[in-house]
Every structure is written in structure tokens, then in C-alpha cells.
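Input chain follows. Return C-alpha cells only.
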Amino acid sequence: MAIYVTGDTHRNVDTLKLGLFADRNPQLTKNDYVIICGDFGGVWSERTLEDDLKIFENLPFTVLFVDGNHENFWLLNSYPVTEWHGGKVHQIKPDIIHLMRGQVFELEGKTILTFGGATSVDKAFRKEGISWWAEEMPTYEELDEGMANLKKYGNKVDYIITHSCGERALMYPPLRTRSFRTGRYPENQLLSNFEDIADYRHWYFGHYHMDGRLNDRMTVLYQDVLPLGE
């Protein structure tokens, strides 16, 4: 079993990278995982749900995702909560699984802390309940759950996978220019709590529509598909 991580897919807008990745890696099976760092978007409309999900079901690997800000949270949260590899999930399909906020999962001997959500900077141009949902914003209750789960592992995990990032990450190029232009948001401060206490090997996140290694422990992802740990 192999584990990979990539950036936002936005329903069917940015899924080409997954198809190309599958073509380049014919050895992949449903026992392998690709984790999407939020803005999955496949659970968006009841009317088109099965067609939207078919794109991901047809991939040779299992798709895991944290939620981003561009998700239909009413529809996503209508799925029952179950436990999978030590953490809470919404199992959308047997091979499509939502990794919920503040959970620690054990995969292939590795521990992974997950935390989705972020602020939609374009929500003024969206309509609540149709193209924007207030549940996009992480809560301090979810943070508390994440901190409690992290404590069970002695505040040490191998990887952190989120949609947005902590405040310190915003100070590294190329995010520094972006953050000066768009500003900081509550989720950046909230996620900084994990950076303050967690001992981790690497932190991956999406949201910013760019690819780059910020330092030896932080990577922002969009089009790249990387083996977990690189």
C-alpha cells in the first residue's frame, strides 16, 4: 500500500492531475491512497452526485480527502459518521472517504492528523446554502477534539494534512506575497495551535492554488501529486 497527497480538485475542475497520475503509475490499486488537501467538491449537488463521484470511483486508487471551504457541508454532513483506521470519517463510497476534522489516522504504520475547513474569500459572490456554507469555518470545538486526539499520541504524529495552514507558513515564500495581498483569516490562527504543540515530520496543505516546499517540514499543494513523506 502506498500513500500520496495532492491539492484541491474542485469537483471535476482539477481532476486531470489524478488521471495523469494514474496513467503514469499503472501499478496502483484500490489498496493505495491519494489524499486530497481539501476543496474535494465531489459531494456538491444531490442532482449530479453520482456522476460527480464516478470521476473519482473510476480511478484505480482509493480517494481520501479533508474538507476545504468549497464543499456542500449540508450534503457532506448528511452521511453517517463512522470510524476508520482510528479516526472519524464520512464514507461517501467504499473508495471515497472524508477524513474529518481533528482526527488522527493510522495508515501503513504512519500517524496522520487531519483538519479541514477555511474561509471562502469569494463568499460575497456566493449564495448561502447553494454555493457557500457557513460550516466551512472550523470551530474551536473541532480544535479541542483535535488537540485531545493529538494528546493521545503524546502530541507527536508523522504527518499533518489540512486545507489551510498556520500563520507561520504564511511568512514563507511563495505564500508571503499571497498572504500580504489576501490577509490572514481565523483558521490560520486556529491551525497555529497545532504548530505550537505538535511534533511532526511534515505538514501538507492546499487552498492557495500553488505548489511549493516552504521549508523542510511544510509543503503547499495544488497540481503536484507527491508520495507522503516527500
